[in-house]
């Protein structure tokens, strides 16, 4: 291969220029797409991290009532809609199974989670925080290494407003 490059030095120079142009165009595309999708990445990383610990759900036997905002954000994350599902009606006492009719059945606590599940939840939560951090660093780099800040602001604003308008429609 080295002999072929020495025989025709122009050809290797052209390949380097083509490769350089491709890398430059790929970096620009990465910058534009990353900046445009950064608001959505932040949204999904944050809401996903919160969902890991079920902050958006009621649990049987618990008095925790999740904030409506968390429930709606989780619904948008999971089902791409802000409309919350209808709460299932509580069946009358007579139609409940015998195990649920005994006193104190509602007050039982859920069984403890295995250590592996808890560790995986923390790993997933930390992954979400890592994604938030790297996305914020990417936004910073977009401003730092791009001459046209108006373009960066335009992509960020469009990337935030467009899905918001669609979700609220």
Report on the architecture of this protein:
Helices cover 69% and strands 0% of the residues. It is an all-alpha fold.
SSE topology sketch:
Elements: H1 2-7, H2 9-52, H3 68-79, H4 98-101, H5 115-145, H6 149-168
Helix pairs in contact: 2-3, 2-5, 2-6
Number of helices: 6
Main beta sheet: none
Q: What's the helical proportion of residues? A: 55-70%
> How many E-type strands?
0
CA radius of gyration is 26 Å
Look at the helices and sheets and give the structural class. mainly alpha
Q: Identify the quaternary structure here.
A: single chain
Shape: elongated
Order of helices and strands: HHHHHH
Features:
single chain; 0% strand; mainly alpha; 6 helices
Concise summary:
By secondary structure, the chain is mainly alpha-helical. 69% of the residues lie in helices and 0% in strands. Helix 2 (9-52) packs across helix 3 (68-79), helix 2 packs across helix 5 and helix 2 crosses helix 6.
């Amino acid at each position: 291969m080295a002999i072929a490059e020495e025989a025709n030095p122009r050809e290797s120079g052209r390949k380097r220029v083509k490769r350089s142009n491709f890398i430059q165009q790929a970096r620009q595309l990465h910058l534009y797409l990353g900046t445009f999708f950064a608001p959505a990445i932040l949204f999904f990383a944050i809401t996903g991290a919160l969902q890991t610990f079920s902050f958006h759900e009621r649990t049987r036997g618990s008095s925790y009532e999740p904030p409506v905002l968390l429930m709606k954000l989780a619904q948008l994350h999971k089902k791409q809609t802000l409309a919350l599902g209808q709460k299932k009606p509580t069946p009358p006492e007579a139609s409940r199974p015998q195990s649920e009719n005994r006193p104190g059945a509602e007050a039982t606590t859920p069984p403890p989670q295995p250590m592996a599940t808890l560790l995986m939840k923390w790993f997933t939560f930390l992954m979400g925080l890592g994604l938030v951090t790297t996305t914020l660093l990417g936004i910073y780099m977009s401003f730092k290494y791009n001459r046209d800040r108006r373009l960066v602001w335009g992509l960020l604003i469009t990337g935030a407003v467009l899905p918001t308008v669609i979700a609220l429609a």
